[in-house]
Specification:
Blueprint: H1 2-28, H2 35-58, H3 64-70, H4 73-86, H5 92-117
């Protein structure tokens, strides 16, 4: 149960990491060094700072290889944010790619648990 909480926090952390891309993309459409550009850029840097601190706490609790394998979930969050905020389309190829990412994370997680039992 302890690992479940850690994995949940890890994926929430990845959501924050991916949401920094929203601010980055929004800032790119503003005039350089304008108030809005600076505010959006500050939000992006703040989220990345929170991510860096959270990442250090997570890798104290789970193996680094497992944490990095789960980092592929940022692609999922990127797709969700693209749909919600930038009206991007979902194509069959993207759905297949998303399925492969999820399958890879699940397979790696189960193989990691099996090695721990040995």
């Amino acid at each position: 149960m302890k690992n479940t909480k850690t994995y949940l926090l890890l994926h929430i952390l990845f959501m924050f990491y991916s949401s920094a891309g929203i601010f980055s993309k929004l800032a790119s459409g503003k005039e350089f060094l304008s108030i809005r550009f600076c505010l959006l850029y500050f939000c992006m840097i703040s989220l990345l700072g929170m991510y860096a601190i959270g990442w250090q706490q997570i890798i104290k609790r789970i193996p680094l290889s497992t944490a990095f394998a789960n980092k592929a979930a940022t692609v999922i969050w990127g797709m969700i944010f693209g749909i919600l905020f930038f009206d991007e389309s979902v194509t069959p190829k993207r759905i297949i790619g998303l399925g492969l990412i999820v399958a890879g994370i699940i397979i790696f997680s189960f193989s990691d648990q099996n090695e721990a039992k040995k």
